[in-house]
Amino acid sequence: MATAELPKVHRALVQRVYAEPLQVEVIPTPQPTAGSAVVQVLFTNVISYMGDIYNGTRKYSYATPLVAGCSAIGRIAAVGADATLLQPGQLVLIDSVIRGRDDPTAIILSGIVDGVSEGSRKLMQGEWRDSTYAEYVKAPLENCFPLDEARLCGTPASGGLGYELARLMYISALMVPFGGLRDIGLEAGETVIIAPATGHFGGAAVFTALAMGARVIAMGRNTEVLSRFKALSARVETVRLTGDEEEEVAALQKFGPADAFFDISPPQASESTHIQSAIRCLRHAGRVSFMGGLLGEVKIPYAPVMLKDIKIHGKWMYSREDAGLLVKMVEVGLLSLEEKNGITVLGTYPLEEWKAAFDKAAENPSVGQIVLLRP
Ligand SMILES: NC(=O)c1ccc[n+]([C@@H]2O[C@H](COP(=O)([O-])OP(=O)(O)OC[C@H]3O[C@@H](n4cnc5c(N)ncnc54)[C@H](OP(=O)(O)O)[C@@H]3O)[C@@H](O)[C@H]2O)c1
């Protein structure tokens, strides 16, 4: 086992009892075991509904006590004896999607939810309970994606992209829509309707689909954000989500039949008309990716789906291959994290200020804006 000098204890944001307030505690530092790395956390994401997860509003199922968290950027501090690539000091992105090694369909989101099977719950009960809102985290080796620090953070004069470390955290937002868009086989030159496009993951979907070479029809209520998308590329068209299905269909049809539709609705959009409008505007054998957080039932226009051989796929997160490819797309410069595209670090907070960070993230940040903890 390659262990650097790990401190005996570290600070972590702990929840002792489900839905009770989090608190910073000093607890034993995790140690590397076979198949894992211990990573020193530099920055970790605060998603907009983090407060609602940990106060029980979202009713996400997870084991307690736990160290809260999700995806993160960090440096490898120590690795298990079977690590073949990762080395102490290396910059990595820690992917929060943890899968059973003997059953990859057993999936948890680190620090957030223990999945839908007995196997997934076992993953969170035991080995992978503690997440990234801490100075150190133990992560599966395969969840640590090496980042080319010289390329990503080096100066343009030295062939780098000049990103500061915190900005790299937006990569994890881009991975989500990439999972769904790849799952439905989106190809360069195709047209994809993205709706609602004006939120955190909807905006990430617009950036990702453009980088994949597609033409994007961004659909949403917020015309200011839609006009920002329009300015990104000649391959962006926009359609206002008005709640009038016939009006939306007419607006979408101006751009011809779409090849694909990517939905990323939040629970509040359960009555929105865009799912019906977008499906009605797909070509024969068009594909649909459902990645939203809708909890109830949704109206589907059954006849067009049947008559046009439409394929509807659900997708939770992304595959390991998707995550690795997405990192490469950022490293080669195909997907930009630049400020001019609206990618902005709104704030970085120490663990002790977790509440301020949760509140900031909940203030409905605009597309590309991220809030981070800096343990
Ligand atoms: N499948 C997965 O793996 C996966 C991964 C991550 C997240 N998700 C899900 O994705 C959902 C979206 O997350 P997010 O962080 O992108 O949310 P967000 O930033 O809050 O964005 C919400 C979007 O929905 C729109 N919207 C809200 N209420 C609406 C309504 N009544 N009618 C029409 N549009 C409405 C918003 O439009 P305005 O801009 O006009 O307000 C905005 O575009 C979450 O619920 C989450 O559960 C799924």
Quick gist of this model?
Helices cover 26% and strands 26% of the residues. The protein has helices at 50-54, 118-125, 149-153, 170-183, 200-211, 223-232, 245-253, 274-280, 302-307, 320-331, 354-362, and strands spanning 2-3, 9-15, 23-28, 36-45, 66-67, 72-79, 91-94, 97-99, 107-109, 136-140, 144-146, 191-195, 215-220, 236-240, 258-263, 282-290, 311-314, 344-349, 369-373.
Q: What would you call the shape?
A: globular
How far from one another are the termini?
Answer: 25 Å
Summed over residues and divided by their number, the pLDDT gives a mean of 96
CA radius of gyration: 21 Å
| Sequence stretches where pLDDT stays below 50 over 5 or more residues | none
Domain Alcohol dehydrogenase-like C-terminal: 202-327
Domain Alcohol dehydrogenase-like N-terminal: 52-148
Pfam families: ADH_N, ADH_zinc_N
GO molecular function, one term: oxidoreductase activity
